[in-house]
């Protein structure tokens, strides 16, 4: 037995030695050239001449010999590319060209771990990118070594050629993109397809080059089959493969690889290679060219860097997406679509295909995430202009809220420099605060109730059913940027906002009301801990920009490496799926910076504005902490035009400021003979003097001359000049005016039919309690500014005298003291440009923007 084993081992060693010797002999074998040397030289010369014609410049010349002035970019698709030098004789050579783009593929029997193969792959990619017309060649690379295309980093930074993927998941993702590329496009008759072809080069004018330098470990039969399938169908769709290491070593029957269809095979030997027959043709000697070919060496590093930098800069300028690429034709397509079944808008390009998102029953709301500077505002503005150009203002109304310190939506409102506005905008909040955001949600909730009544009367239950009856009712899209500010904390505002947000999110779709919530982060919002899934579950559309991956599910990392100007658009609530598999619900899109050409954007907005109906009015603008002025109040303006608008039968009302609600209604306080109809302005803020002045001026505009007296008491030295100027204005209006000091103030407590206005009531020595209780019945009303809340409480006799002053305007007063005076717990945060107005008789407690100064 042992003897037989030794014999078998000896035979095995002999066979291995013979095999190794044969392999060396074959590698060193060179095909015998034809004996006619003159004919060989003539043929090489003819091939050199043909190469100059077929592959001029970058495509066919030695890269290290190209002049530095050789221009980038060509006028047509590069069809042939040089891979090396054919050398039938020592002194007879010619450039070896192979057909690729427009024809088929290229395979190397060795992968990029052979440095010759790695070098020629870099050479091929560089030549093709340097020659292809801008925007017509898309390159995707797979390299398990992660080193072959490292020098092409500037192209990745510009978004022209992403970094090569190195693992099996990355391979699957690239194959999925290539498979999507090969899907049939829309028919020529499709009008939407016509718009896309007009905006971007047609698919048949563009090519995708998929370069596989080395396959990742664990590449299975499924991935190999997908590569083979792409090879069979790719060229008809502009997809071409360069695969190194094909066919590879078969580890199992399932991984045995046949020759790649429509490919020119290159067998790598040592030190030359043999070039096989190209697709659809054959060399005269059989299956390969009977000439040794030596692959081109590594391209110079400095040349690769220069070309990549120039191509990247050119792509940034010429290959970028423009806003107009996503909009309908202004001469035929503006305001041409109906919102009855839903809203649709193009949000970017995936390859050269427009990607549209919808507001409809199945996709009612969107969630958008992205870090500061990640392009979130740009994306939202693209969407808003896309909607505004497709739908008439009768079809679409917009609520726009921005909670950050920025100007996201300021371009949609009129300004002194530009009177235009977006006709679809109903309410725009610039640097909104939480109170205004809450007011908007209340308004949307109320609008749902109003529409429910309309639906009931019409006998329908859904928005689309109402529109099918011919009723015109616009869909509403509410955009809330940095919505997490509204939901911050666990106070009453956050609690109510969450409840309203959930109500609108759940029921809005049925009433044609849709939400876009945008934020730098959607995690860690304390008010949503118990409601996160129930609310965000109503937002199937997720848009992840750079830094905004948390709008996707935790196991979906498709947004991990996004570049500026790109986004992941997911219509399945952020769900991922097997990585590398084709995801119909998720796309990578490129979107434009709408402000890249401010002139075009301004012209676009003004054209929309000029197309508006004459009945359209500017949007209601809530401008954060911007001051509000009495002269700008619509109610006051009407009074100044015609004081008869307020007849003697109406109660005079002091105008105090603008409520923080959607329509910015005027906050006022009525004076009648009821007990307690006095007004107290409380807090040390100097705004108290302005509130009193605005109240007096607005009251004066509601009284006929000589029908009421004004008694002015400037007990604060800094207000003397203001009060004297106000007195002159009141006299000019025909009203009797008396100015008193601290001593004369007590004598005025017995007057009838007068407004007693005191700046610095906390310095008065006279006891006002009797006047406060009895004054309103005699037509005497006090308008006083107390800088100290404790003194006010003493002047009214403590809690027993609360009802003697019904009107309270709190400025920078602590919440605890406010609650004590109101008699109930009040949630109030004193801050600049805000006041809390409370009317004991009507029960109103509102945050207002108090009037400051007389005019803007």
From TrEMBL:
SUPFAM superfamilies reported for this sequence: P-loop containing nucleoside triphosphate hydrolases
Residue numbers binding ATP: 370-377
GO molecular function, one term: DNA binding
The FtsK domain, residue ranges: 352-550
Keyword ATP-binding found: yes
CDD domains on file: TrwB_TraG_TraD_VirD4 (cd01127)
Pfam families hit by this protein: FtsK_SpoIIIE
Key word Nucleotide-binding present: yes
Source superkingdom: Bacteria
Keywords, comma-separated and alphabetical: ATP-binding, Nucleotide-binding
Transmembrane spans: none
Bias (Basic and acidic residues): 183-196
Protein name: FtsK domain-containing protein
Upper taxonomic lineage: Bacteria, Bacillati, Actinomycetota, Actinomycetes, Micromonosporales
């Amino acid at each position: 037995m042992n003897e037989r084993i030794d014999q078998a081992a000896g035979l095995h060693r002999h066979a291995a030695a013979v095999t190794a010797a044969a392999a060396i002999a074959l590698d060193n074998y060179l095909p015998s050239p034809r004996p006619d040397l003159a004919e060989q030289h003539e043929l090489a010369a003819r091939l050199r001449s043909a190469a100059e014609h077929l592959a001029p410049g970058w495509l066919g010349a030695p890269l290290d010999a190209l002049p530095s002035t050789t221009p980038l970019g060509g006028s047509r698709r590069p069809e042939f590319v040089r891979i090396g030098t054919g050398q039938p004789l020592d002194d007879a050579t010619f450039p070896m060209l192979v057909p690729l783009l427009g024809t088929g593929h290229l395979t190397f029997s060795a992968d990029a771990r052979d440095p010759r193969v790695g070098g020629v792959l870099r050479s091929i990619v560089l030549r093709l990118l340097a020659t292809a017309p801008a925007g017509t060649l898309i390159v995707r690379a797979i390299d398990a070594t992660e080193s072959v295309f490292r020098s092409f980093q500037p192209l990745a930074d510009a978004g022209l050629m992403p970094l090569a993927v190195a693992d099996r998941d990355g391979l699957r993702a690239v194959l999925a993109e290539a498979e999507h590329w090969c899907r049939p496009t829309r028919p020529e008759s499709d009008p939407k397809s016509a718009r896309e072809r007009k905006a971007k080069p047609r698919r048949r004018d563009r090519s995708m080059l998929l370069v596989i330098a080395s396959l990742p470990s664990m590449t299975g039969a499924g991935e190999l089959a997908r590569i083979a399938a792409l090879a069979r169908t790719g060229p008809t769709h502009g997809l071409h493969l360069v695969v190194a290491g094909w066919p590879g070593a078969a580890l199992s029957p399932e991984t045995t690889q046949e020759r790649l269809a429509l490919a020119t095979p290159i067998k790598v030997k040592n030190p030359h290679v043999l070039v096989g027959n190209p697709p659809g043709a054959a060399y005269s000697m059989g299956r390969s060219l009977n000439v040794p070919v030596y692959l081109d060496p590594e391209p110079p590093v400095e040349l690769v860097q220069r070309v990549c930098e120039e191509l990247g800069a050119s792509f940034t300028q010429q290959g970028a997406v423009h806003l107009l690429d996503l909009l309908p034709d202004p001469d035929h397509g503006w305001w041409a679509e109906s919102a009855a079944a839903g809203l649709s808008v193009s949000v970017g390009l995936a390859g050269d295909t427009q990607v549209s998102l919808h507001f409809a029953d199945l996709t009612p709301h969107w969630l958008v995430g992205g870090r500061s500077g990640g392009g979130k505002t740009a994306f939202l503005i693209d969407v808003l202009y896309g909607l505004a150009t497709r739908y008439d203002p009768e079809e679409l109304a917009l609520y726009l809220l921005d909670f950050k310190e920025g100007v996201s939506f300021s371009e949609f409102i009129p300004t002194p420099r530009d009177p235009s506005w977006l006709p679809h905008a109903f309410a725009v909040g610039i640097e909104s605060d939480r109170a205004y955001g809450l007011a908007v949600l209340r308004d949307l909730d109320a609008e749902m109730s109003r529409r429910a009544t309309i639906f009931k009367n019409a006998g329908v239950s859904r928005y689309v059913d109402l529109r099918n009856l011919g009723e015109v009712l616009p869909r509403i899209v509410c955009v809330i940027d940095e919505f997490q500010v509204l939901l911050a904390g666990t106070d009453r505002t956050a609690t109510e906002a969450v409840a309203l947000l959930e109500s609108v999110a759940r029921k809005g779709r049925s009433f044609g009301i849709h939400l876009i919530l945008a934020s730098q982060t959607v995690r860690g919002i304390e008010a949503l801990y118990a409601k996160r899934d129930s609310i965000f579950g109503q937002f199937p559309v997720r848009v992840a920009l750079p830094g905004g991956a948390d709008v996707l599910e935790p196991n979906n990392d498709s947004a991990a490496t996004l570049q500026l100007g790109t986004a992941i658009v997911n219509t399945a609530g952020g769900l991922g799926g097997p990585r590398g598999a084709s995801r119909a619900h998720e796309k990578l899109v490129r979107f434009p910076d709408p402000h890249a050409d401010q002139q075009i954007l301004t012209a676009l907005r003004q054209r929309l504005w000029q197309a508006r109906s004459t009945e359209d009015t500017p949007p209601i603008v809530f401008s954060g902490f911007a001051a509000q002025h009495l002269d700008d109040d619509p109610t006051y303006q009407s009074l100044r035009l015609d004081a008869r608008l307020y007849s003697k039968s109406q109660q005079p009302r002091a105008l105090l400021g603008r409520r923080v609600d959607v329509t910015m209604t005027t906050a006022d306080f009525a004076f009648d003979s009821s007990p307690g109809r006095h007004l107290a302005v409380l807090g040390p803020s100097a705004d108290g003097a302005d509130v009193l002045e605005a109240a007096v001026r607005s009251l004066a505009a509601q009284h006929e001359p000589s029908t009421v007296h004004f008694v002015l008491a400037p007990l604060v030295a800094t207000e003397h000049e203001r009060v004297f100027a106000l007195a002159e204005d009141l006299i000019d209006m025909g009203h009797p005016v008396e100015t008193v000091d601290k001593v004369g103030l007590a004598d005025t407590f017995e007057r009838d039919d007068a407004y007693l206005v005191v700046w610095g009531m906390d310095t008065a020595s006279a006891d006002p309690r009797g006047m406060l209780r009895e004054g309103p019945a005699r037509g005497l009303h006090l308008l006083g500014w107390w800088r100290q809340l404790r003194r006010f409480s003493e002047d009214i006799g403590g809690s027993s005298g609360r009802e003697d002053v019904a009107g309270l305007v709190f400025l920078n007063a602590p919440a605890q003291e406010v609650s004590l005076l109101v008699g109930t717990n009040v949630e109030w945060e004193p801050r600049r440009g805000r006041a809390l107005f409370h009317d004991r008789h009507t029960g109103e407690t509102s945050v207002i923007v108090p009037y400051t100064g007389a005019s803007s």
